[in-house]
Design brief:
Layout: H1 2-19, E1 22-32, H2 46-53, H3 63-68, E2 71-76, E3 79-80, E4 94-95, E5 110-112, H4 122-135, E6 140-144, E7 152-154, E8 156-160, E9 163-171, H5 178-190, E10 195-201, H6 212-223, E11 228-232, E12 240-243, E13 246-249, E14 254-257, E15 266-276, E16 282-294, E17 302-304, H7 308-316, E18 328-329, H8 334-337, E19 339-343, E20 346-348
Parallel strand pairs: 1-2, 1-14, 2-5, 3-4, 5-6, 9-10, 10-11, 11-13
Antiparallel strand pairs: 1-15, 6-7, 8-9, 12-13, 12-18, 15-16, 16-17, 16-19, 19-20
Length: about 350
């Protein structure tokens, strides 16, 4: 009788543990482990610091956090190549291919490569970058020039805790890209992806509020089947909203960057926690943020904030006070908690029962 009772209790505990299993995804902003060609080798430049401190230096203050989750996404905004010919623009970012191994010491699991610096050293430089990431086993995804002879179309599919996560990325998305984004979301669903992340390199640099068209565009992308919109490019944090219970990160800011160290240093680790039910289907449970600042020239390490006033200053940048049709803002008290829970499509500061 005792053996039967013990077996029954074990079964209850196992069922309870399975019901409470979670999947935690993290998102960080722009990562540029390099510099402009004219800065190469100069004291205080990114690669100079890496040569002195080692490849594990940049993420040394946040690596434990990123390794404690289940999967981390980062925006790679630098070219890994030795090429000299570059685009005719003010800022071209580059590092030698061996510096791509920094990602092996970060807790980052996959990187986006579709952004406005992808072509800094022409298509050859972009292909060098993908080859460098591949050589160090760094998963990557990104779609450039879809439907043309120059097309580079890499979709990410990653299996974590039995859940397939798909990722698609576009840079400077336009209305005519919507069907292309939709077709890739559909392809990821056909591959069995239960969560689909859409990475958008968009918006206006150093502006804290998205442009008006982005609110409408985000809803259209969500209606195409995205579960998360993860944005970057402005180099500063922007607001977070929800649409039909799904998060929109308009801009996750700079995380570790070899230039533009004079912009707002507030940044963070954006985390989504999903509950996995008995069928292993993910259900969004909470959104939380680890507030950080990004340190500039000579250091470059993201630093978690510890003072409550500093945390609230950072979190306030994520809370929007104006209403947009069908879009839900974070509650104002989010600045005190850094976490919000999902009860269906309703955001709440209290844990749902």
């Amino acid at each position: 009788m005792k053996r039967i009772l013990l077996l029954f209790l074990c079964m209850l505990l196992c069922a309870s543990a399975a019901a409470e299993e979670t999947l935690i995804l993290s998102f960080v902003g722009d990562c540029s482990m390099g510099e402009m060609p004219a800065q190469k080798g100069k004291e205080g430049s990114y690669t100079h610091v890496l040569d002195e401190k080692g490849f594990d230096w940049p993420f040394s203050l946040v690596r434990d956090i990123l390794e404690a989750d289940d999967f981390t996404f980062a925006n790679n905004e630098v070219i890994y190549s030795t090429r000299k010919k570059h685009a005719d623009k003010k800022t071209n970012l580059i590092a030698a291919p061996e510096y791509a191994q920094v990602y092996q010491h970060t807790g980052v699991d996959a990187v986006n490569t579709a952004n406005n610096h992808a072509m800094d050293f022409m298509m050859e430089g972009y292909d060098d970058t993908l080859a460098a990431l591949d050589s160090f086993g760094i998963p990557h995804f990104g779609t450039l020039y879809p439907g043309t002879k120059r097309e580079r179309d890499h979709l990410g599919i990653y299996e974590v805790k039995g859940i397939k996560i798909g990722a698609v990325a576009f840079s400077y998305p336009q209305d005519y890209d919507l069907p292309k984004i939709g077709s890739r979301i559909e392809k990821l669903r056909e591959e069995g992806c239960e969560l689909v992340i859409v990475s958008l390199h968009w918006g206006r640099e150093v502006h804290f509020i998205p442009e008006s068209w982005q609110f409408t565009y985000a809803k259209k992308v969500m209606d195409l089947g995205a579960d998360v919109i993860w944005g970057h490019h402005p180099h500063v944090l922007q607001i977070v909203q929800f649409y039909k219970g799904k998060p929109i990160f308009y801009s996750t800011g700079n995380f570790t960057f070899g230039s533009m160290s004079d912009v707002d240093k507030n940044t963070g680790i954006f985390q989504l926690t999903y509950h996995l039910n008995e069928e292993n289907a993910p259900s969004l449970y909470s959104f939380s943020v680890v507030p950080c600042i990004t340190q500039g020239k000579g250091d470059f390490r993201p630093l978690p904030l510890t003072e409550e006033a500093d945390k609230e200053k950072m979190l306030k940048k994520l809370v929007y006070t104006k209403n947009k049709k069908d879009l839900v803002n974070l509650p104002e008290d989010f600045i005190h908690t850094g976490i919000v829970y999902l009860d269906g499509e309703t955001l709440t500061l209290e844990k749902p029962e």
